[in-house]
Design brief:
The structure holds two protein chains of two kinds. In chain A, 50% of the residues lie in helices and 18% in strands. Chain A is α+β, with helices and mostly antiparallel strands. Chain A has a four-stranded antiparallel beta sheet with strand order 5-6-7-8. Chain B is mainly α. Chain B is rod-shaped, with a radius of gyration of 38 Å. The chains are: A alpha+beta, B mainly alpha.
């Protein structure tokens, strides 16, 4: 058919088509601020031409399809970078809190407390019998150990909070993956009729949200279904099925056909990846080094303290460190002593026993590789029996794995020249108890009686004086003594080395600062990249009002022109009908 | 290039966030006066600051130690000088008493005077600073010299301290003796105190011998005691000189500490304190940038084709 009918038909199609285009424009304008919306374009095409009268006439216009403007390359890059950025942002948040824990400008500065502790020993060395100096020293020791406890507790607390965050993160991931699976289903049923643009936008948005939680790989099949896996290939969404993750005993679990697998370590990106890194690699490093330092403080201070003597001899003492098996060699891990490796075998210590007149009798006791705490079947190698058999007027006993020495009535005792380190290892005549940053404390024995703080030493004749400061001076020298201290990396690799106690703490604080600084820089960089990619994506896919306004006018005019066509065709028909 | 409406608004949001973050940081530097407000601001500088703080703290402690040591040494020097003075009086008296013009009666009364000298020396030997004995080795809570059994069944002035000198800490790993082993000053006590020919090197024994020689009117014995007094005074003078040398050393150390304090404080301030003028300039610059960003953003956001249709 041709002629005026064709003009009318063309005009009708044109009206409709321009109206569809206006619909698309209005949809775009309406979604100008919708997050994740991709602008849609009405693809308009000339209709199939019609041969007529020896010519081929165009038959007007039609709507081909409504297309969504996206660049899948940019989308993929954006998704990957979003994962990186989310991980960095979480690390940055937690590290800035960790930084606060180690804040050296606050009153909790361990560095300043080390100074106070050494200065208290120095003051004691200037006035060894002063009870005020002793009280101050005890207080500074307690404050120092309390700070170790506090920092460690805070770090532990972060670990627990991160567990909660991970658990909530896993639930969020499950929610997102099930929504993606549902959308897969909706899209495939809707796309029988055309492009499900808005549903696809929603699905892309969910995938982007998902990538904020963990690093994902996404594949699209020929039907348009998305398969989503974790960065290491554990399937999260396959066609219309979602695989839920679970969180069990601090691990993220993935359940496949062969059962549950812990995939925590494989998550490197997204919030989950950031939390995992802080929980499993950053905090453990700081805790390990804090423990290392606390352990060294306990051992080195105790080693010197156990050489000395307080203002008076002791009437009874119970070791602060207990063995788990009293028939095992003390200098072996089997003994269960925290500081078994500090014992030097083949060395001796001296036990001085004083009667009420001050007469002193010394007993040298040698610690060998086979010395045990208390083995009735091997009294020759049993510390308890060695003391009882060789030293008069004191009684040694084992109390719950700890060594207890008690003087007879009117007798006191003290220790000197412990080359073996066994006294420090058993916690006899020691300043600190505990073996890590969580349980380091001042020995309760000293809290109860500050006269037992060992500022002086017993001389070779068995004499000692409240005015002696020899041991205190040695303690002061510990401030600048290099001791063996192991450093840890974030990957759990250890390097042994030496440092002063305070120097090691400075190193630890420095490494917190450096880590936080580098994470912040990486985060800033990742943020810039994400912003740039977002801008690229938006410039491709998001709505420009200016453009839509232009289109609006364009289609309005086209619509008006098409309407004009109808009225013109109408006039032409009138003209024809008036012909008689 | 196509610019979407969302990109325009996002850019404005991001830029304003960045500029205001920079402004906040500049403000923090100005308001705290510190260049390092968090560990991550300058971790390397912070570790230096920590070490400097610790050094300053240690220096303050050393100053306390030195003040205390100085009082010990000064007291020790005074006591030694007084002992020397007493011995010198004893010698003058002895010279008079060796003269043939002096009779037994004069010598007997001189003996009483020497006994007085003996008690003076004994009390000087037990000199205390803040209740602690300075000539007792490290047994500073024990009076160093007292009458006791000499091990031969007789009474003598027996040393109760030990032979380790009382020390204070004046620098990393350096301790200085500020107290003394009493036997270094007053002589060894391990001999039979009833034997008149023993214990020549002991000041107390010399004075006791001198006293008994005066009582017994023995001029030879008085002369022998005079020689012993000379050797004691020589020893005391060298000990006084040694004490003076130690006091000089402490003073020198104290001066060094003053200088170190200045150097450390300067260095610490350089590392952690903000240059206020620079910080304020920086803050002004950030303020300006923020205002500029606000202005241009307001203009960009206002523009739209919608307004012209």
């Amino acid at each position: 058919m041709a002629g005026i009918g064709l003009v009318l038909n063309t005009a009708k199609d044109a009206l409709l088509t321009q109206q569809y285009a206006m619909d698309v424009v209005s949809h775009n304008i309406a979604n100008v601020s919708t997050e994740g919306y991709s602008r849609q374009t009405a693809i308009i095409q000339a209709s199939t031409p019609i041969p007529y009268g020896g010519f081929i006439f165009g038959s007007g216009v039609g709507l081909q399809e409504i297309q969504r403007e996206i660049d899948s390359f940019v989308e993929t890059r954006l998704r990957e970078r979003t994962s990186d950025y989310a991980a960095m942002a979480e690390k940055e948040t937690y590290l800035s809190v960790v930084e606060g824990v180690f804040d050296e400008n606050s009153g909790r500065s361990i560095s300043a407390q080390f100074d106070a502790f050494w200065n208290a020993w120095s003051d004691l060395s200037n006035n060894p019998s002063g009870s005020a100096e002793r009280a101050v020293l005890l207080e500074s020791g307690a404050t120092l150990s309390q700070s170790f406890n506090d920092i460690r507790n805070d770090l532990d607390q972060f670990g627990l909070e991160l567990d909660l965050a991970l658990e909530a993160g896993v639930q969020k991931v499950n929610q997102l993956t099930s929504q993606i699976a549902t959308l897969n289903e909706q899209i495939i049923s809707m796309e029988i009729q055309g492009n499900a643009n808005d549903l696809r936008d929603q699905r892309d948005m969910l995938v982007r949200n998902l990538s904020e939680y963990l690093d994902v790989n996404v594949f699209q099949d020929s039907q348009g279904l998305l398969t989503v896996t974790t960065g290491r290939g554990y399937t999260l969404v396959s066609k219309t099925d979602a695989y839920a993750l679970s969180f069990e005993s601090s691990e993220v679990m993935w359940e496949g056909s062969t059962g549950k697998v812990a995939i925590t370590d494989t998550v490197t990106g997204g919030k989950l990846g950031g939390w995992r890194e802080v929980r499993d690699s950053i905090i453990p490093k700081y805790e390990a080094e804090l423990d290392e330092l606390a352990r060294a403080v306990v051992w080195e201070v105790n080693r010197i303290h156990s050489q000395g003597v307080g203002l008076e001899g002791m009437s009874t003492v119970t070791g602060a460190f207990a063995v788990s098996d009293s028939a095992e060699e003390l200098a072996s891990a089997d003994s269960g002593l925290d500081f078994w490796d500090g014992i030097e075998t083949g060395k001796t210590f001296t036990l001085w026993v004083f009667d009420s007149a001050g007469n002193a009798v010394d007993t040298d006791i040698t610690v060998t590789a086979s010395t045990k705490l208390n083995d009735a079947g091997d009294t020759a190698n049993s510390l308890v029996h060695l003391i009882n058999d060789n030293a008069a007027n004191v009684t040694a006993a084992e109390v719950d794995g700890a060594l207890r020495i008690t003087g007879d009535s009117g007798y006191t005792f003290a220790f000197a020249d412990d080359e073996s380190g066994v006294l420090a290892a058993l916690g006899i005549n020691t300043f600190f108890t505990g073996a890590d940053s969580l349980d380091i404390r001042v020995n309760d024995t000293l809290k109860a009686d500050t006269t037992l703080i060992a500022a002086g030493r017993i001389d070779a004749a068995g004499a000692f004086s409240p005015g002696d400061n020899t041991n205190a001076l040695d303690m002061v020298a510990l401030r600048d003594t290099q001791v063996a201290l192991t450093r840890h990396t974030y990957d759990g690799v250890t390097t042994s080395g030496t440092d002063t106690l305070q120097g090691y703490f400075s190193y630890l604080v420095g490494s917190v600062g450096i880590k936080s600084q580098s994470v912040r820089r990486e985060q800033e960089y990742a943020e810039i990249v994400v912003n740039q990619l977002t801008e690229m994506r938006d410039n491709m896919s998001a709505v420009s009002l200016d453009e839509e306004m232009t289109n609006l006018i364009k289609f309005q005019h086209a619509y008006a022109a098409a309407a004009k066509l109808i009225s013109t065709a109408d006039e032409m028909l009138q003209t024809l009908l008036q012909v008689r | 290039m196509r610019i979407s409406t969302k990109a325009i608004y996002d850019t404005v949001t991001n830029n304003l966030a960045h500029v205001s973050d920079a402004m906040l940081h500049a403000n923090q530097v100005v308001s705290t006066g510190k260049r390092i407000n968090r560990l991550s601001d300058d971790p390397v500088g912070l570790v230096s600051v920590l070490n400097l703080r610790s050094s300053l703290d240690y220096i303050a402690q050393l100053e306390r130690n030195i003040t205390m040591g100085d009082s010990w040494l000064a007291m020790g020097e005074t006591a030694l000088a007084q002992v020397e003075e007493v011995l010198s009086q004893a010698k003058t008296l002895s010279i008079q008493m060796t003269s043939d013009t002096q009779g037994a009666e004069e010598r007997a009364s001189a003996a009483v005077e020497v006994e007085g000298y003996f008690h003076q020396v004994l009390s000087l030997a037990n000199t205390q600073v803040n209740g602690r004995y300075i000539f007792s080795g490290t047994q500073t809570a024990t009076a160093p010299f007292a009458w006791d059994d000499d091990g031969f069944g007789n009474q003598g002035i027996i040393y109760q301290g030990n032979d380790t000198e009382f020390e204070i800490n004046i620098a990393k790993g350096i301790n200085v003796a500020v107290g003394r082993d009493g036997t270094d000053i007053f002589g060894d006590d391990a001999f039979d105190w009833s034997d008149p020919d023993a214990g020549q090197a002991n000041i107390f024994k010399t004075l006791l011998d001198l006293k008994s020689h005066l009582e017994n009117n023995e001029t030879d014995g008085i002369r022998a005691a005079m020689d012993e007094l000379d050797s004691h005074m020589d020893n005391l003078r060298s000990l006084i000189a040694d004490t003076g040398a130690k006091m000089n050393r402490l003073e020198l150390k104290s001066n060094i500490i003053q200088e170190l304090r200045l150097t450390y404080t300067d260095r610490k301030s350089e590392l952690e304190d903000a240059d206020v003028a620079e910080a304020i300039m920086d803050l002004k610059a950030k303020e300006l940038a923020y205002q500029a960003a606000l202005n241009s953003s307001a203009k960009v956001m206002k523009m739209s084709l919608v307004d012209f249709l």
